[in-house]
């Protein structure tokens, strides 16, 4: 204790200690974010360059561009997209392959990215919702969802749109479904029925129940004239009664 402090009363010394500790704590609080950011930046830099134990480097082609990632073998494609590449359009809903919010397109087929491992996707063409539009031009399916109110909260919409794009390609390639009346005569875009669309989109859930708009969006993207929203609701009520 200094001579100056000895001259102070115990109460004054306690007050001085309290103020000193408070200022020290305040200084630490101000400095902490910058120190934390510095540590995070160093961690990010080392993660991008150096493999840690248990990781392997993979090369994925996503939306037409190659990306190099260091991942553990157990990392899902969904987590790699969201956590390492910042492609957060693909949503994590159930993380069990039950809702379809994480749907992406791999080699022309729709895939639940939460159920496939990132290390399994090397040398494959991966398209996420971010890769459908070209510059300022939306994909026709994206425009159709806007035109027909194919969403409400929007959380499932990226998966719904990717699934719809893949659905249309499946029809073009002559794919049949469980409800196709004649398996020797695959449906065509111009004659794609509402029943076919609902069956083929059944793996994508919408908790807001914007299903009428989603079906209408697929019909528009297929080149058909979708029914008005009022007509769609009326048809649905007739089906439920019958």
From TrEMBL:
Keywords: 2Fe-2S, Iron, Iron-sulfur, Metal-binding, Oxidoreductase
Pathway annotation from the record: Alkaloid degradation; nicotine degradation
GO molecular function terms attached to this record: 2 iron, 2 sulfur cluster binding; metal ion binding; oxidoreductase activity, acting on the aldehyde or oxo group of donors
Highest taxon of the lineage: Bacteria
Record's keyword annotation contains Signal: no
Residue span, 2Fe-2S ferredoxin-type domain: 56-132
The keyword Metal-binding appears for this protein: yes
Transmembrane segments: none
Protein name: Putative oxidoreductase, 2Fe-2S subunit
Gene encoding the protein: yagT
């Amino acid at each position: 204790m200094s001579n100056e402090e000895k001259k102070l009363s115990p109460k004054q010394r306690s007050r001085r200690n309290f103020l000193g500790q408070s200022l020290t704590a305040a200084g630490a609080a101000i400095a902490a974010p910058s120190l934390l950011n510095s540590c995070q930046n160093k961690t990010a830099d080392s993660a991008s360059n150096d493999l840690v134990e248990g990781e392997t480097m993979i090369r994925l082609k996503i939306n037409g561009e190659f990306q190099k990632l260091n991942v553990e073998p157990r990392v899902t494609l969904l987590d790699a997209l969201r956590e390492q590449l910042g492609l957060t359009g693909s949503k994590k809903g159930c993380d069990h392959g039950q809702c379809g919010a994480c749907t992406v397109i791999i080699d022309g087929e729709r895939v639940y990215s939460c159920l496939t491992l990132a290390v399994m996707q090397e040398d494959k063409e991966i398209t996420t919702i971010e890769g459908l539009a070209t510059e300022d031009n939306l994909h026709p399916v994206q425009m159709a969802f806007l035109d027909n109110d194919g969403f409400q909260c929007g959380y499932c919409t990226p998966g719904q749109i990717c699934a719809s794009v893949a659905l249309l390609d499946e029809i073009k390639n002559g794919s049949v479904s469980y409800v196709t009346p004649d398996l020797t005569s695959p449906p065509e875009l111009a004659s794609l029925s509402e029943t076919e669309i609902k069956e083929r989109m059944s793996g994508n859930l919408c908790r807001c129940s914007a299903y009428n708009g989603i079906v209408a969006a697929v019909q528009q993207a297929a080149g058909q004239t979708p029914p008005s929203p009022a007509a769609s609701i009326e048809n649905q009520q007739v089906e439920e009664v019958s």
